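Forgive a beginner's question, but might I ask you for the amino acids of a protein and the tokens describing how it folds?
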Amino acid sequence: MISGWNSRYREILKEFNYNKKKDTESALLLDSILGEENYIKKIHELIKNQNVFVIGAGPSLSYAIPVLQHFKKTVTIVADSAIKPVINNGIKPNIIVTDLDGDEETLRRMGKSKTIFVVHAHGDNISKLNLVCNFKNCVGSTQTKPFGKIQNFGGFTDGDRAVFLASYFNAKKIILFGMDFGKRIGKSSNTKPLERKIKLKKLRKGRSLLEWLALKTKSELFTTSSPITGFKKIPYSNLDSIIA
């Protein structure tokens, strides 16, 4: 677990009025559902010392997709809500980071593939965890203390958790796409009008956690989306030189 995470987690509990007991309950259930095979080694082999693309569902995703189609050999981690537009455009994720809020049909379909799922357990998704039974390759994660088959890689939203995951396994370079963290919400997130305020609050928290991670990680950090402190902002035209 990344040093200092417990303090960040206490902040999340306080700011969002979450229940630590329910987070733990969810993690215990996920641990009981997961199979015995450990996919941590496979994730490590995929990511260590590699260039990694992290794809979110922000407004800029639609501009990023035509670019990403030219980089099919780069290790790709996709956040939950971005899965459907990404795979519908021929981009195959190596890893999907999800708390199971995305399109269920797409999750089930990808669960039969070689893609590794990193499924996050928290107090609000206990009723959805049985979806994991449909995933061929799966790792469980939590915001609380890791135990059994459940890991804590750090992070809060699917998008920033994907970045924390890449950093945890020592990616050489991490490049963000569709990770905007602004006042606009991407269409792929399927956020309802009544959920807009809390969604924007979560995005602000995710951004602040990435800025904190930037002070600690050994990975080089880049973004093609909105500027983030600690990440070098690059145009798509520079990608070839960045991942060379």
